[in-house]
Amino acid sequence: MGTYRHCKITGFFWHLKAVLFGLSLIVSGCSSSTHPKPQDLPEFPFELIRFEHVFFGDLNTPLDQLKSQYPYFFPEQTPDFVWEEKRTNSLQQALFKATQTLFKDDLKQRTSNVLRYANHYFPNDKLPRKVITLLTDVDYSLRAVDADSLLLISIDTYLGESHPLYEGIPQYIKNSLVPEHLESELIDALSNRYIQKTNSRSFLSRMVTHGKRLLIHDYLAPDLMAHQHIQYTQNQWDWAISHESDVWRYFVDNEWLFSTDESLRFRFLNLSPYSKFYSYLDENSPGRIGQWIGYRMVKAYQKRTGASLQEVLAANAQEILKKSRYNP
Fold this sequence. Notes:
The chain is mainly alpha-helical. It contains 16 helices and four strands.
């Protein structure tokens, strides 16, 4: 653990560090322009289907016709009267009406941009050719779902943090239910295609897996602000930057990197109002700080090794830890 401990650095090494930092800025400045603009990429043809429009908006369309067109939305064990009642339910209709003001002009374009980048960076992948929006009773655990040939969007989970229909939902969750996070959710849904599954349950492995997912964000939505990828506010991102070394030292000093303690997942990786250090760090900390640390480690590994996106995704967690020399 000695390599992670702070040590006194002489003036010579401070000078060397400054030179290396300057070089890294030059390199990162050059690499930041390597992503093409979405309009410069080939079109990725797909069909956008607003299922909530035909189900809740056009009540004259017979249910049998909808079941024939979209059989995957109608399990056989569910009787027809359940669907008929759902179509006219007052709460469902209120949700439907609320979604009509969302993404009026840019839903297809924003989705297209993500799919174009995905097709560019993963050209051998068979991406979904149908994107379908629908209501899911505000199921914020599944805001976008990659279903092989279908990409599903829970359109009622983007109404905005102050929407009255979200009353009763914890504020830290409502904060993420905003239209600005559409790209982030789409990429999260697609990222499982590209990250190799691992049997490791170590804290390090889980952090790195999240880090790889967030790295994919950099490639599939390069124009987003840094904090938007992980769905932090700017203040939360700033807190993470200013406390990065404190958080890392806390993990290392507690010897948690190779721990399989399940409580670490709930404290530092899962969605929560704040990360649970049980110390002064709790105050103002964003949740999921372990995901963010994993991202910073993966970025350090890529910068130090010059690895391509695919090479980073193929690297295992211990290799990334070792070669990144991550020590903020």
